[in-house]
Design goal:
Radius of gyration of chain A: 18 Å
Order of helices and strands of chain A: HHEE
Largest sheet of chain B: 11 strands, mixed
Number of domains of chain A: 1
Strand order of the largest sheet of chain A: 1-2
Oligomer: heterodimer
CATH architecture of chain B: Alpha-Beta Complex
Number of domains of chain B: 1
Structural class of chain B: alpha/beta
Strand content of chain B: 5-15%
Number of strands of chain B: 13
Order of helices and strands of chain B: HHHEHEHEEEHEHEEHEHHEHHHEHEEH
Strand content of chain A: 5-15%
Number of helices of chain B: 15
Number of strands of chain A: 2
Amino acid sequence: MDTRAVIRAKLAEFDLDVSEEDLDELVPAYENLLRQQKMVEAMLESKPLTEGMEMPLSEPILVHNIARYR
Amino acid sequence: MAMNPKELAHAEIAEIAPLIKSKEISPVELVDLSLSRIAELDSTINAFIHVFEDEARATARAQEQEITSGAYRGPLHGIPIGIKDIYENGPTTCGSKTLDGYVAAEDCFSVKKLKEAGAIVVGKTGTYEFAYGPPTLETHFPPTRNGWNTNFECGGSSSGTAGAIAAGLTYAGMGSCTGGSIRWPAQCCGHVGLKHTYGRVSRRGVYPLSQSLDHVGPLARTVQDAAYMLQGCAGFDPLDPGSADVAVPDFSAKIGRDIKGMRFGVMRDLYEDSASPAVIRAFDAALRQIEKLGAQTIDVPCISLEQLLAFAFPLMWADAGAIHVRNLRTRAADYGRHTKLYLLWGLCMSNAAYQDGLRVRAQVRDQLLDHLTSKVDVLILPTVGFQTPRVLEQTPGLEFLHGEAFPFYTPIFNHTGLPAIQVPCGFDDDHMPIGLQIAGKPFDEQTIVQAAYAYEQEAGWYKQRPDI
C-alpha cells in the first residue's frame, strides 16, 4: 500500500477525510515519523530472554512518577 | 527612586512592589500606564487578544483602597499581568477561530490564585493556535512582534505574554509549556521563563495540548520576579489529576546565596552539533562566568537532538490529535490549515510506537535523575540552538516534520517533568537575546532559582531593556 493510502486509511479510522493537497504535505512528514519510530525502537532498553525474544526494561509511564526521587 | 513612565513600564516587580507597599505608587497608576501603553503600542506589537480595561481599572481602585487601609497582600499586589489566551478567564479563544465568542463561566484555578495574590489581569495574550508551534501566518490573529525589534517575532507559543512584557505593557504574565512554550518566547524576548516541576501548578481550566506534558507557568523580567509569580500560582489542586500534593516552599528562599561548589551538568551531547555559533559563543561565555562564581561545570552524557526529536514531538502531537479529533470532525475548516495538518500527523502514530515513546522517555528521565542524584546539582544547556526568528513572510508548511534537525532543546524537560528556568545569556549580531536553561531535581525549584539568580546577577544581561 502506498503512503498516501496508508495515511488516508489511518485517518479514516477516525472518520476524518483528507484532501490530495493535504496529503502532498503529510506524506514526507509521515515518512519521517516512520523513521523516527524506528529510531525510538532502537533506543529501547530490553533484556534478551530466549532466541528472538526480549523483555522491555522500562515502563511506558503515562504520568511522570517522579515524586519518588525527591 | 524617581522613574519616568517608560522606566516605570519596564521596571521589575521587585523594584515596584516596595513602592506599592509604601504607597509611593498606586495600582491605579500602574494599570493606567499599562492600558495607555497598550492603546499606544499594541496595534504594532499584537500582544493582546482581549483587554480588560474596565475590570482592571476597577480592581486597581479596590486594591488602592486595600493598601491604603494597610492590607498589603505581597509582591504581586497591584501588578498588571497578562494571561495567555488558553486559560479560562473571560473571553478565551486559544488563538483560534473555532472559539470565537466563547466566554469562560469562571476563572481557571491558577488565575484565581494569582488574583488572590493581588495581580491585576489587564488582558488575554496572543498564542499560536491552541498553543501549537511552530509559527504560521494562517492563524486567526496576527503574530506578536518583539519589542527589541519589531521585525522579529516573540517565539511561541506564549508569544503574547512574552511580547507584552518586552514592550513594557505588563510586568509579567502566564504562559503554558508543552514542549518549550514558556522558555523559548522568554528567550526570544530576553526574559526569564520558569517551567516548574510537572504537577506543581494546576492546569485545570487551561486548554490541554498533551496532559502528560502540559505545564502552566510564568514569564517575567528577572529570576526574582518569576519566583514571585510562581509563588502566586503554585499549589495542589485535587481536581487536576496531574497536580502534585506537595508543600509549596518559598521559591525565593535561596535567592542571593552563592553557588560556590555547585555542580552544573553540561548536556553537551544534546546541543553541541546543532547550536549556532552565536549560541555556542554566548553559552560558553556563560559557563566561564558560572565557574568564576566558584561552581563546577561537568559534562554529563545524554541523548542527542535527533533522539530527542524522535519521540518528543510525535508523542506531543499524538496526544494533541486525540484531544482535537472530535472537533476536527465538525470544525476542521475553521482550524488554521497547518494546525489541522499537525493534528492529522499526530493521529497517524501507531499505538505500539506511542508506547515505545513512553518507555524511552522514562529511560531518559531516569538517566537525568541519576545525574541529579549522584553526579551534579543542576543541568545546564542552551534554551534553543537558533536565534530569534524574523516575523514570517510565508508559512513554512510541515517542513519542521520532514526530519531536518530543529535545534529545540526544551522538550526534554517536559518529557522528564523536571523544573527548568530560562535566563538571558547574551545577544546576537542583530541584538536579539540568546538564552540558557538550568534544570534541577523534581520539586526543587529553589535550587534552579538560586543558580539562575547568581548567574543573572553576575552576567547583568537583565539590565538591558528594549527601547520601546
